[in-house]
Each structure stands twice: as C-alpha cells, then as structure tokens.
Amino acid sequence: MDIIVELAKGFINLFETGGKTFMSWMTGIVPVVLMLLVCMNSIIRLIGEDRINSLASKSARNPLLRYMVLPFLGAFMLANPMALSLGRFLPEKYKPSYYASAAFFCHTSNGIFPHINAGELFIWLGIAQGIQKLGLDTTSLAIRYLLVGLVANFLCGWITDYLTRWVSKQQGVVLSSEVKIKA
C-alpha cells in the first residue's frame, strides 16, 4: 500500500511542479514576450508595413544582410525569442536559414549583450569566471565571441540556404520567393 501512496504522491507532484513552472512563465517570460510583440507591432504600424516589407525584400537579396545584420538587429533590439519573429518579413525560401542564423546569434552575443538571452547567461558567466580566475579581461573574450558568432551565424544561415534548396528539390516542394505577411 505504501508503494501505491508514494506513486500517487509522485504523480501529483509531477503536475504541481509543472503548474509552478507554468506560473513562473506567466509572471516571467510570457509578459516580456507579449510586450515585445506589442512594441514590434506598434513600430511596424508607425513605420508602415509597406516600408518594412520593402526593407525585408531588399535585405533578402543579400546574404550578409539576411544572416548577419538582420539577426543582429533582431537579437539586439528584441532579444530571444522575439528576434526570430523578424523572419516573418522574409520570403518562405529564406525563413529556415534566417531562423538558424538568428537562433544561433541569440547565444553567441550573450557575453557583450546579456539582455539578449538572459536565460542562458549562466553559461557565459561560468566561462567568464574561469577567465577572471586566470587574471584575464572578459571584455575582449565577449567581443571575440560576438565577432566569431557573427561569422559562424552567417555561415549557418548560408549553409541552411543550400540545404533548404536541396531538400525542397528532393521533396518536390516549391518555396515562395515573395514576402507574404498575414495580418
């Protein structure tokens, strides 16, 4: 009987822990993401969707803008995970590559811009603590991490472009080259 009682307690504890985690999200990241969405949509409305679409289509033509500048601006201004939302302004054929580049960028810029991915700041702080114990400055490490990240993230996006084309061709899927935004 004790085993059944312990199993029942464990089963309920699983859901209680899930509820606590959910509530921490509701008072932590969900309001932040919601406010970032409101801010981004407000900026889009102020600037105008036509201008944003035009800027996105111009940046979509150039891989450096698409996988280096746009993810940097998105991560710096919107942080993780909202940086990924800028991909909505790109044609379908570039969205997987933009996601790959932007997702990686949210990790590689944490040393110099900790606001971008606060949830993973502990990784950077652990590395920085080791560097400080060696008597070295963490600023130069953060800048190097950012610069190497920019190049690596660009390559990640560009390689994903090739893989997307290859898989699309293999599967017989045609991805649109035009920006289509659903309101």
UniProtKB/TrEMBL annotation:
GO process terms (BP): phosphoenolpyruvate-dependent sugar phosphotransferase system
Name by which UniProt lists this protein: PTS glucitol/sorbitol transporter subunit IIC
UniProt keyword Thylakoid, yes or no: no
GO cellular component, one term: membrane
The keyword Cytoplasm is assigned to this record: no
Matching PROSITE patterns: PTS_EIIC_TYPE_5 (PS51107)
Domain of life: Bacteria
Segments traversing the membrane: 22-44, 64-84, 142-160
Classification via Pfam families: EII-GUT
Keywords noted in UniProt: Membrane, Transmembrane, Transmembrane helix
Signal sequence, start to end: none
